[in-house]
Every structure is written in C-alpha cells, then in structure tokens.
Amino acid sequence: MNMLQLHAQQVEAAATAKTPQQRRKAQAAAAQAFVSRMTWPSEASGGKEAAAKKKGKPKARRVCPQPTEHTEQVAFVKWFRLQYPGVLIFAIPNGGDRHAAVAAKLSAEGVTRGVPDLFIPAWQLFVEMKRRAHGRVSTEQAEMMKTLCAAGYTCLVAHGCEDAMLQVKNLHPVMEKRK
C-alpha cells in the first residue's frame, strides 16, 4: 500500500466517524500522519542515487539537504484542508522563473511582486512560506506584507510546514466540543 492509498484510507475513516469530535480527531491524526510520512529529498533511499550506490558509481546529482519551499507548501495545504475542512485556502502563484513574454503578460494582468504565497479569506490571513533554513523574505515581500497589515490583514512568515502548522494552530485553534 503506497502513501496516498494509506492517506486516502485515513481520510475515509475520518469521514465515517460518528461524532464531530471523533471526526476532527481522526482528521487531525490523518493530517499529522501524512506529514510525518512525507519523504524529503535528503531522506529518499530510491532513485538514481540508490542505483548509483549499488553499482559503485558516484552520485549523478546532489540531493537537496532540506525540502523545497514547494514541498513544504504542498504538505501544509494538505494538512490545512484536513484540519480545517470547509475553510478556503488557496495559492497565489506570483513567484517562479518564467519566460520574459509570459512574465510581461502576467504583469499586465495584475501579477504583483511580493504577494504572499497563500491566502485564507475567512481569516483574512496571508501566509508566506519559506524553506526551513536560509529562507529569507525579500524586500518586495516585506513591503507587501507591511501594506497588507496596514489594510487590516494578518500576515505570517512560516519557515517550513511544521512552523506554518504551529502558527496557524496558535491563531485559530480547532474548536472541540467540551464534555
């Protein structure tokens, strides 16, 4: 059974829970289990590197010592959607390397440098994802977050999935019924 099949099984178990409290606990457990099972590039044991080791050849490429911002963001969004079902979260794809013609077209359409990576409209919350180590906020991002905060939004910078999870939990804890 692969990771996605196991994850789907856990999500299905959460959906069939009898009480809302049991459902929330099962969803949180599924989300935490999913994040803990993710294999970061530095932890991977398969692929070209494993084949090269078996043949005694040097590695074909350097393995990244930490997960990418993309990998961290994907894990965080999956966790968020399980933890807070019904709360909309979406990405704002402003970054990335683009062909000059595509960049000019997007700029004309209103793409703006520095806008944070994720937005949660119900909470008026912007989330800027960074790598766990060495992730820095650019000047444009700092200025944009300053502008957004002045307009009444909340902005946070998260260094990795786990940091984002912790900060969001602190801002909006999952409400459970008291006995």
What's this entry about, in short?
The chain is an alpha+beta fold. It is 49% helix and 9% strand.
| Separate helix tally | 7
What's the average pLDDT? 79
> Would you tell me the structural class of the helices and strands?
alpha+beta
Compute the number of strand runs.
4
- At the fold tier of CATH, the topology name of the domain at 68-179 is Trna Endonuclease, Chain: A, domain 1
Q: What is the CATH class of the domain at 68-179?
A: Alpha Beta
> Biggest sheet, strands in spatial order?
1-2-3-4
Rounded Rg: 19 Å
- The end-to-end distance, rounded to whole angstroms, is 37 Å
In terms of DSSP E residues, the strand content is 5-15%
| Unreliable runs | 40-45, 47-52
Helix content: 40-55%
- Characterize the largest beta sheet: strand count, sense, and whether it forms a barrel: 4 strands, mixed
Give me the oligomer status.
Answer: single chain
CATH architect. name of the domain at 68-179: 3-Layer(aba) Sandwich
Can you characterise this structure?
Helix 4 runs parallel beside helix 7 (161-171). The chain has helices spanning 3-15, 20-37, 47-55, 69-83, 100-109, 139-150, 161-171, and strands at residues 90-91, 118-120, 125-130, 154-159. It has a domain at 68-179: Trna Endonuclease, Chain: A, domain 1. Mean pLDDT is 79; it is low at 40-45 and 47-52. A 4-stranded mixed sheet has the order 1-2-3-4. It is built from 7 helices and 4 strands. It is α+β, with helices and mostly antiparallel strands and 179 residues long.
